[in-house]
Amino acid sequence: MSDISTQPGQQTPAPAAPDAASGKPVSFRGGGFAPKPRKLVGLAVFVVLIALWELGSRSGVISSLVLPAPSEAFGAFMDLANSGNLWRHLSASLQRLVIGFACGVSLGLIFGTAAGLSSVARAAITPLVSAIFPIPKIALLPLFIIWFGIGEGSKVATILFGCFFPMVIATYSAIDNVDRTLIRMGQSFSLSRAQIIWKIVLPAALPGILSGTRIAASISIILLVAAEMIGAEYGIGAYVLLAGNLMATDQLIAGVAILSLLGLTVNWLISRLENHFLGWRN
Amino acid sequence: MDLRVENLSHFYNDLEVLRDLNLTIPHGEIVCVIGPSGCGKSTLLRLLGGLEKPSKGQILQLGEAPSGSLNPLTYVFQDFALLPWRTVEGNISLVLEPHGLSAEEKERRIADVLERTRLSDFRKAVPKQLSGGMKQRVAIARALAVNPAVLLMDEPLSALDSQTRELLMDDLVGLWQREPFTSCYITHNLNEAVRLGHKVVVLSRRPGLIREIVDIDIPLSERDVSNPKLAALQQQLWEMMRDEAQTADMELATG
Ligand SMILES: Nc1ncnc2c1ncn2[C@@H]1O[C@H](COP(=O)(O)OP(=O)(O)OP(=O)(O)O)[C@@H](O)[C@H]1O
Ligand SMILES: [Mg+2]
User: Where is the ABC transporter domain (chain B) (predicted)?
Assistant: First the structure.
């Protein structure tokens, strides 16, 4: 080592080897582990699967009793749309979803922020959250019906409850992970506590909060259907349930597809929010 | 405004970190503090700026802060502490927002510090687009924007490579010559200390007490790399610190 560094002009002689002149290229072993967006692939998988399914039904490999063809399900969907009931079901569901989700997420944000910022609030809230979060909210549905009535109240409450807990957890863990040096910086420039929370803590916690919102959205769609299965006249969940009872599998598939589209839409909306607010990350 | 430290001692539970410090940071001078790792330099700086309460003794502000000073004691952090979601100008405006300045006054201050740190072309950039040296220049611009009485800098150049460090040292000297500022500058780079310090305070290993205060009366402009007096000074400081550093290092290694 030492004589290499003191005599920079001199090269160490290459070790004598039979193929020293020709050499062997260093084999490549890096790369990979960097998934890139490939939108068309996902779409192609859908198209191919549905085409295979249609083909299977037409050729009789898949009995229509077991699984109706996609075209039949689409027919059921068109019937629903033409009868004018689609909008009625969808608006009833959307209303519950939006109210329950919005209230659950806002309350979750408030309680989560409190738990993230104050030791007392944290000590009070976290054990409660740990105790209630794992309970399937569907099991509480009968209680909600007694408390909030068989109408909209119990359905909205189910969704609200379902969104609330994951939101609390996401918010306070996001706040826990905020870089403390940024907070010290705010203090050192005499920013007030409210300004530190509003201008430093919450923006820094936003990535975690938005991924919590994503989870809350999926949970709220799951709970929407569960809640509508009890005593709802209109709603996608009610439609699916009725179809199931009548063994109208084509309607059932159509209803499930609507739910899936709903989920995709909500996810897309949240991605737009992320792109808008978290553009600084890339 | 001067800053005076009187009989300052500090403890973390039973751990004595600083012992009986007496020190003045005079107006318009840069006071460099060096000392072995873990001797309490960062603690001293937090105490100076009021981010922590001293266990014993006191820290006094002598005289009034300059008029127009929004935040007399202002930090520059080692890891920049810039908000990644705000642009360069947004990061500077953050620290002006609490003071209810008029839009013109804010704009005037931002334009002024960006010009002084030669960042005017990077107003709209976000920190991610900037190199480490540029980020620290933004942090320095942000600190200057509030017109501080004393700049508290904790190893501001440690996160940078050595070329960038040279450039930023020149920048700091330039800034000081244009408009002398008062500063307590923590470093463990002896070269930084002799290039920037009007005074170098040498702390012993923990519990940190002042081993020596070295005055350097060469003007900042004459302290280029080739100046033999500086090399001699740096050597002298290293002699002072060597044993301390070695012992401190062994302490850490053995637990
Ligand atoms: N908040 C704290 N609680 C308890 N101990 C602390 C705290 N902050 C620092 N210490 C201890 O005080 C001592 C001095 O720490 P300090 O960070 O001031 O040293 P330093 O001189 O800045 O070191 P370095 O050169 O590594 O930056 C260290 O032993 C550290 O472990
Ligand atoms: Mg330190």
Answer: 3-230
Q: Is residue B72 part of a domain?
A: no
Q: Which atom of ligand 1 is nearest to the CA of B35?
A: 21
Element (H, E) at A76: helix A70-83
What whole-number distance in Å separates Cα of residue A189 and Cα of residue A203?
Answer: 18
Q: How far apart are CA B64 and CA B60, in angstroms?
A: 11
- Distance (Å, whole) CA A254 – CA A77: 6
ipTM score here?
Answer: 0.89
Domain count, chain B: 2
Q: Compute the distance from residue B214 Cα to the ligand 2 centre, in Å.
A: 21
The residues, ordered by sequence, that sit 6+ positions from B140 with a Cβ below 8 Å of its Cβ are B76, B117, B156, B171, B172, B175
From chain B, pick out residues whose CB is under 8 angstroms from the CB of A281: 84
The CATH fold of domain A71-281: MetI-like fold (1.10.3720)
Chosen for mutation from A182, A188, A199, A278 (greatest number of chain B CBs closer than 10 Å) is A188
State the smallest CA–CA distance between residue A189 and chain B in angstroms: 6
Q: Do residues B156 and B219 both lie within one domain?
A: yes
Query: pTM of the entire structure?
Result: 0.83
What is the spatial distance between Cα A206 and Cα A202, in angstroms, rounded to a whole number?
A: 6
| Local confidence pLDDT in tens for the 282 residues of chain A | 444 444 544 555 555 555 567 888 999 998 888 888 888 898 899 899 999 999 999 998 888 878 889 999 999 999 999 998 999 999 999 999 999 999 999 999 999 999 999 999 999 999 999 999 898 888 888 898 899 988 889 999 999 999 999 999 999 999 999 999 999 999 999 999 999 999 999 999 999 999 999 999 999 999 998 888 877 889 999 999 899 899 888 999 999 999 999 999 999 999 999 999 998 887
Nearest Cα of chain B lies from the Cα of A196 at a distance, in angstroms, of 10
